[in-house]
Amino acid sequence: MGFAAVARVTEDRWIACQVQDDIGFGLDAGDELEVRTTICDEIRSDHKGVLIDNVGQEPAWNTHPTPIMYGFKSYISVPIIREDGSFFGTLCAIDPAPRETSLSKVRDAIDGFARTIARELDSFTSGRVVST
């Protein structure tokens, strides 16, 4: 995937906390997207991850406005859930080309990264040291 971000997602805001951009998507840490234009906003509502191998081959997504607006063909996003059960945001990635993202090992890895991020956030806010 050519672009990945840890995003803080609230009802009103989508803020990039950390970014890896190898495709020139144009976002840096601290930048914002209009939250209503993101799939992350949907994930905020239902706490369920989304994996799209190829937007054009998936009827649920091929007319969805977000892939059209941002020009991606593949997408991964999983919720970052804090220890207290609160939703922090998402770990998300996009690519302008189709990718095989729904393989169980990819999903397991992304879910694991999201859990690690949540533990680090909890550690930071509580002053605890997390051992990994």
TrEMBL record:
<dbReference type="Pfam" id="PF01590">
    <property type="entry name" value="GAF"/>
</dbReference>
<feature type="domain" description="GAF">
    <location>
        <begin position="24"/>
        <end position="119"/>
    </location>
</feature>
<dbReference type="InterPro" id="IPR029016">
    <property type="entry name" value="GAF-like_dom_sf"/>
</dbReference>
<protein>
    <submittedName>
        <fullName>GAF domain-containing protein</fullName>
    </submittedName>
</protein>
<dbReference type="InterPro" id="IPR003018">
    <property type="entry name" value="GAF"/>
</dbReference>
